[in-house]
Design brief:
The chain is α/β, with parallel strands linked by helices. It has a domain at 2-221: Alpha-Beta Complex (Spore Coat Polysaccharide Biosynthesis Protein SpsA, Chain A), CATH 3.90.550.10. Helix content is 36%, strand content 19%. The protein is built from ten helices and eleven strands. Helix 2 links the parallel strand 2 and strand 3 (62-66). Helix 8 (227-245) packs parallel to helix 10.
Length: 327
């Protein structure tokens, strides 16, 4: 069994070096061959130099690929096309994988029992947590790429995150690649390309597995632990939902925005203004930014557009099992 780890990167050569060091120390499943494919998405720093240094040490394992079309989904799709593996694993260019990560993440994929798997992502905080941040709120933890469903392996009924996921190559051939109208590009924080792809598999009856022993440590720098970043992330999460799922059904609209959504936006704004306590107050403020992103997405979405129009340039039926995050 051949396995490819795809690491997409953009101007993060210092953290990329640490990521590649951790992948170089991986233990492999018995009889497996590994390649680590770094997809450089127009970096202007020392990214290629870093990858070449690893290639000199182990040219059979490390590969470099340049993808000129800007955007995370374009980079991931380029990696999928160039990969030689039967199983494709993904992690971020600032993540550190544990030595047993690959063995545990792919344990249910070798015999075709599961189409994909996801593991635990543990944030590594750069400073003590601020008083307004609640680690017990899954939605609040989204900007920090945290993913932990407990200590026991089990079937996944929700999507894993892109920093720690793996799929059999066949599922990309069957269901298409990551949607290029989702995923980060330039300076925006649009996402959900990993969530949409996993939802696509679940909607078609494919099995995904949660592997808690497949652990990735994800650094959280100080600038991500600021309110400004979390609010901006929440706004773009709302906009990404509209790109993925389409405009919500409603009876009345104002400039493309459902009236019911505007009422929710007003309600959460009032709760933000009157709430007491740093965590509760910020939670309301974050919801306001999230709903504002949904509203802007609805306003800018063409009336005739439907969700799921762009899957590698091919129209496909979309049947996502997930509901929206907030009510």
């Amino acid at each position: 069994m051949n396995i490819t780890i795809i690491v997409c990167t953009y101007n993060r050569y210092e953290s990329l070096a640490k990521t590649l060091e951790s992948t170089a120390a991986l233990k492999l499943p018995e009889g497996a061959k590994l390649e680590i494919l770094v997809v450089d998405n127009n970096s202007t720093d020392r990214t290629r130099e870093v990858v070449e240094s690893f290639r000199r040490i182990d040219p059979s394992r490390f590969r470099y690929l340049s993808e000129r079309q800007q955007g995370l989904s374009y980079a991931r799709n380029a990696g999928i096309r160039a990969a030689r593996g039967d199983i494709l694993a993904f992690t971020d260019d600032d993540a550190i994988v544990e030595p047993d990560w690959l063995i545990n993440l792919t344990s249910g994929l070798h015999d075709g029992e599961c189409a994909g798997a996801g593991g635990r992502i543990i944030p590594v905080w750069a400073k003590p947590l601020p008083s307004w941040l609640s680690t017990g709120d899954p939605f609040t933890m989204g900007p920090f790429v945290a993913f932990d469903l407990g200590p026991e392996p089990r079937p996944l009924t929700r999507p894993p995150y892109g920093a720690n996921m793996a799929f059999r190559r066949q599922v990309f051939e069957k269901y298409g690649d990551f949607r290029v109208d989702l995923g980060r590009a330039d300076t925006n924080l649009q996402g959900r390309e990993d969530i949409e792809f996993a939802n696509r598999l679940l909607a078609n009856g494919e099995s995904l597995r949660y592997e808690p022993r497949a652990v990735v440590h994800h650094p959280v720098p100080e600038w991500r632990m600021e309110k400004r970043y979390v609010l901006r992330w929440s706004y773009w999460y709302g906009r990404s939902e509209i790109v993925e799922l389409g405009r919500p059904k409603a009876r009345w609209f104002i400039s493309g925005v459902p009236v019911s959504l505007l009422k929710r936006l007003v309600r959460w704004t009032l709760q933000w203004m009157i709430s007491i306590g740093a965590r509760r107050r910020f939670s309301c403020q974050r919801n306001v930014w999230y709903l504002a992103g949904i509203a802007v997405g609805c306003h800018r979405r063409p009336p005739e557009a439907t969700a799921g129009d762009m899957i590698s340039g091919t129209e496909r039926e979309r049947k996502p099992p997930q509901v929206r995050t907030l009510t």
